[in-house]
């Protein structure tokens, strides 16, 4: 078995994502492990994805594989490697047919990709210099609130009045959040302020790239519905997403592996 299965792995800064697709490009297995480059995360998420495919399929049975992401150069077993920008564009174009603008917020960077009508990457802007506006900023704030990033959306939805965060630097913003907590500001209001701060930075990035609908959001931060809705209000266009948004890069890598094999 199974020359008609292709694997894509996205070794990110904070999480490893793996997707297995069939000949038709449909996802038949995926794996996610919350640690990235230089850890056991990549192997663990590949094992999870192959187990989901079932039938005792192993890496040796695959028709092709491709690694992408920050730690892709460490995955020497993969047949090929491809840049994360190209893989994100390819995966997003397949997940969201007709998408022209992809907002990807990961653990360490944020990027906005512009796609042509036929789904090719034509331009991008990126923030990889500063943690503000990335998943890292949200991870730090969740730590201060004593919750996980998965809880931030529900917290925001309970807010009554947005408590604005004026500091743009993550370290100063963390101190500001701690001061607000000490002053008795409710956590939901601060969570809303944290989301507004990320939404504002992301909007700035998207304006530089140019915003053409259809707009989609990918990366782990796309799972944060309250943040996506705040960004949507600023941008003035619907932002579509999917429960597979965090797998867009891995999906694009798998599609690339399939193309190379055909
Ligand atoms: P990378 O590719 O850089 O490792 P990802 O695209 O996997 O990044 O995104 C990781 C980020 O996604 C984390 O830093 C975290 O802030 C956010 N995240 C992960 N899971 C969730 C979740 N369930 N809800 C909200 N945010 C999440």
Main sheet properties: 5 strands, mixed
Per CATH, the superfamily of the largest domain is ATPase, nucleotide binding domain
Count every helix, treating DSSP H or I runs of 4 or more residues as helices. 8
Read across the widest sheet, the strand sequence of neighbours is 3-2-1-4-5
Number of domains as seen in the coordinates: 2
CATH topology of the largest domain: Nucleotidyltransferase, domain 5
Strand content is 15-25%
Mean pLDDT: 94
Helix content: 25-40%
CATH C-level label of the largest domain: Alpha Beta
The number of E-state strands comes to 10
Structural class: alpha/beta
What small molecules are bound in this structure?
Answer: adenosine-5'-diphosphate
Contiguous low-pLDDT stretches (5 residues minimum) are none
Characterization of this structure:
The protein has eight helices and ten strands. The strands form two sheets. It has a five-stranded mixed β-sheet with strand order 3-2-1-4-5. Strands 8-7-6-9-10 form a five-stranded mixed β-sheet. It has two domains: 2-90 and 247-261, Nucleotidyltransferase, domain 5 (2-Layer Sandwich), CATH 3.30.420; 98-241, ATPase, nucleotide binding domain (Nucleotidyltransferase, domain 5). The two termini are 17 Å apart. The protein has helices at residues 41-53, 84-95, 135-145, 152-157, 170-182, 187-209, 225-235, 248-261; strands at residues 6-11, 16-21, 27-33, 64-68, 80-81, 101-105, 110-115, 121-127, 215-218, 239-240. Helix 2 packs across helix 8 and helix 3 (135-145) runs antiparallel to helix 6. The radius of gyration is 19 Å and the shape is globular. Helix content is 39%, strand content 19%. It is an alpha/beta fold and 262 residues long. It binds adenosine-5'-diphosphate. Adenosine-5'-diphosphate binds at residues 12-15, 36, 69, 106-108, 135-136, 138-139, 149-150, 219-221, 223-224, 246.
């Amino acid at each position: 078995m199974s020359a008609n299965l292709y694997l894509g792995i996205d070794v990110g800064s904070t999480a490893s994502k793996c997707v297995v697709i069939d000949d038709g490009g449909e996802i038949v297995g995926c794996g996610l492990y919350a640690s990235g480059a230089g850890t056991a995360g990549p192997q663990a998420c590949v094992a999870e994805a192959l187990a989901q495919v079932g039938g005792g399929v192993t890496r040796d049975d695959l028709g092709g594989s491709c690694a992408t992401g920050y730690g892709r150069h460490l995955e020497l077993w993969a047949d090929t490697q491809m840049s994360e920008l190209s893989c994100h564009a390819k995966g997003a174009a397949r997940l969201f047919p007709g998408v022209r603008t992809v907002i990807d917020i990961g653990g360490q960077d944020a990027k906005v990709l512009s796609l042509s009508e036929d789904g090719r990457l034509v331009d991008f802007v990126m923030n990889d210099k500063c943690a503000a506006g990335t998943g890292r900023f949200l991870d730090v704030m969740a730590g201060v609130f004593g919750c996980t990033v998965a809880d931030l959306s529900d917290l925001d939805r309970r807010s009554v009045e947005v408590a604005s965060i004026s500091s743009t630097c993550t370290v100063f913003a963390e101190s500001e959040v701690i001061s607000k907590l000490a002053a008795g500001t409710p956590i939901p209001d601060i969570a809303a302020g944290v989301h507004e701060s990320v939404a504002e930075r992301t909007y700035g990035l998207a304006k530089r790239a140019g915003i053409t609908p259809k707009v989609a959001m990918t990366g782990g931060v796309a799972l944060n519905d309250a943040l996506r809705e705040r960004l949507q209000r600023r941008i003035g266009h619907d932002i579509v997403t999917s429960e597979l948004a965090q797998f867009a890069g891995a999906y694009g890598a798998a599609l690339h592996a399939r193309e190379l094999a055909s």
